Amino acid sequence: MLMETHKRHLLGWALFTPAAILLIAFTHYPTIATFINSLFSNSSIIRPSRFIGVEGYQDLFDDPVFWKVFSNNIWLALGTIPTSIGLAIIMALIVNKAVPGRSFLRIAYFTPTMLPMIAVANIWLFFYAPEIGMLDQVLGLFGIDSHNWLGNPSTVLPAIIVMTIWKEAGFFMIFYLAGLQTISPELAEAAELEGSSRWNFFWRVQYPLLLPTTLFVLINAFLNSFKLVDHLFVLTKGGPDNASNLILYYIYETAFSFLDISYASALTVFLLLLLAVTALAQFYFVDKRVHYR
Hints:
The chain is an all-alpha fold. The chain folds into two domains: 1-38, no CATH class; 60-287, MetI-like (MetI-like fold). It contains 13 helices and no strands. α4 crosses α7.
């Protein structure tokens, strides 16, 4: 009996070890190494690395470009998260019904999610191109002059927000559709017998039951809003004048263009702490209103 127990333990550890090695190698070790790098200066052939403590973090808070990039990311999150979630719920409600062409609608809504971000950026580059782009061509029919959407600091970030919503809403729709299909049809029948309106049934019944899904989607949407970087390579390179620059792209520039590994590490640690604290706060506050079944 004891031998069988040991065999089960060994089997469990054997199954767990490959995943643990990958997790440590690609998650925990890079995080620890990044934190250590943020405490040391950059090394070179003539000047070895030295301990600088929190000097890198002090430089971070004194960096006007960082605050510009950070505010861009906040505006991106505020512009994309509520709208993406709202559209995802509406699309899920539509395709959850027995409407003509429901399968086609589901595919159409989900297709942008399957496209690589680089491909999405190139598609929207065609829309936003001044004079020859589809957006200016359509607006020209109404007598509206051409506009450089990606070259103007006042419109470049809203343009990226629209593209991000188009990309992510269909992805979140899948989770809401799955949540809607777990709700018993008897609840809808009972509400219909009681003469409840569709809006009242959604707000009083469906939405509370979808709160676990909303919690999951909300956390993922927030994390995604700080992970966007691919489209900037194609569309703006963070310009003009850092008007569309985001934290992750700024980290990439600092590390690989400016070769300032120490400061890039400090930026990365700040971003990781921000995402962790915000995700935990969202889970803590929203979880109190969640009705698990």
